[in-house]
Amino acid sequence: MSPYEAQALYELRRWQHEMLRNPGMFNALAHKAQVKLNSYIPERVHQAITTAIKQMIRGVLFGAGYISAKPVDGLPLEMRETMVRERVRYYQQAAAAEGGVTGAGGILLGLVDFPLLLGLKLKLLYDISAVYGYDVKDYRERVYLLHIFELAFSSHEHRRKVYRHIADWEAQQVLLPEDINAFDWRSLQQEYRDYIDLAKMAQMIPVIGAPIGAVVNYRLITKLGETAMNAYRMRWREQGLLQE
Fold first, then answer.
1. What is the maximal distance between C-alpha atoms in the chain?
2. Nearest residue to 67 via CA among 147, 143, 137, 138
3. For residues 46 and 49, what is the distance between their CA atoms, to the nearest angstrom?
4. Which Pfam families match (predicted)?
5. Given phi > 0 = left and psi -120 to 50 = alpha, else beta, which region is 171?
6. Are 236 and 17 in contact (CB under 8 A)?
7. pLDDT confidence bin for 27, thresholds 50/70/90
8. 103-127 burial, b if ≥16 CB within 10 A, otherwise e?
9. Based on the number of CB atoms within 10 Å of its own CB, is 241 exposed (0-12), middle (13-18) or buried (19 or more)?
C-alpha cells in the first residue's frame, strides 16, 4: 500500500463515520429556520424550483443531453484523484461565476440558477465516474451517481439510509430493476430541494444575492466532489482495488 492509499483509507473511514453519525441540535435549528424562510417564498417560486429539479433528474436517468467521457484505465488511485480534484476545481469556478451572476439578478435570475447549478453538479459526477473507471452508459452506474448526489444533499436520516444501501453496492446493484423508470427520483428531488432551500433562497435577496450565490455554489460543488471521491474509494475497497 502506498502512503497516498493509506491516507485515502484514513479519510474514507472518517467520512464513513460522518455518514452514520446522529444529527445534532444545529440541524434541528437549521430545519426550523428553513421552514420559516420557505413560508415567505411565493408558491409559484417553489413550484418552478421543484419542476426544474424533477426534469434535470429525469434527464440524467434517461441519459438525455449528457455526453460521458471514456472510462480511465490503468492508473493508480493517486493519479486518478489528482484528475478528480482538477475537475472539481473547474466546476467550482464555473459554479461560483454562475451563482454570482444569477444572484445579482434577484428572484428571476435566481430561478435560472437552480437548473444551471444542478446541471454542473451532475456533469461533474459523470466526469468523476469516468476517472474512477466506471462507464455511465450502464444505467446502474447512473443510479449510483444519483445515490452519491443523495449522500451529499440530503437530511441526516435519509443520508444514513442511502449510505447503508450503497455500502454494499456490488450486491445491491444486482437487485436493481431492469426498467429505469422504477427509480424513486421523487424522494431524491424532495431531499435535494429541502437541503439547499435555505442557502439558495437567500441568494434571491437583492444586493447580497451575488456574493451569497458565488460562495454557496462553490461550497456545494466542494461537498459533492468530496462525497463522490469517498463513495468511489469505498467502492474500490469493496472490489479489492484499494486494500487495507
1. 55
2. 137
3. 5
4. EcsC
5. alpha
6. no
7. low
8. bbbbbebbbebbbbbbbbbbbbbbb
9. middle
More confident residue, 36 or 119: 119
C-alpha cell at 65: 443531453
| 215: its cell numbers | 460562495
Instruction: Enter the pTM of the model.
Output: 0.81
pLDDT number for residue 29 = 65
Angstrom distances, CA of residue 158 to CA of 37, 91, 161, 165, 185: 22, 26, 5, 11, 13
Q: Which three cell numbers stand for residue 83?
A: 484528475
Residue in 45, 173, 177 with CA at minimum distance from that of residue 112: 45
Which H, E and C letters describe the chain, residue by residue? CCHHHHHHHHHHHHHHHHHHCCCCHHHHHHHHHHHHHHCCCCHHHHHHHHHHHHHHHHHHHCCCCCCCCCCCCCCCHHHHHHHHHHHHHHHHHHHHHHHHHHHCCHHHHHHHHHHHHHHHHHHHHHHHHHHCCCCCCCHHHHHHHHHHHHHHCCCHHHHHHHHHHHCCHHHHHHHCCCCHHHCCHHHHHHHHHHHHHHHHHHCCCCCCHHHHHHHHHHHHHHHHHHHHHHHHHHHHHHCCCCCC
Rounded CA-CA distance 69/129 in Å is 9
* Cα 224 to Cα 92: distance, rounded to the nearest angstrom: 10
User: Cell digits for 203?
Assistant: 441568494
Over the stretch 133-147, which tens digit does the pLDDT of each residue have? Answer: 999 888 888 889 988
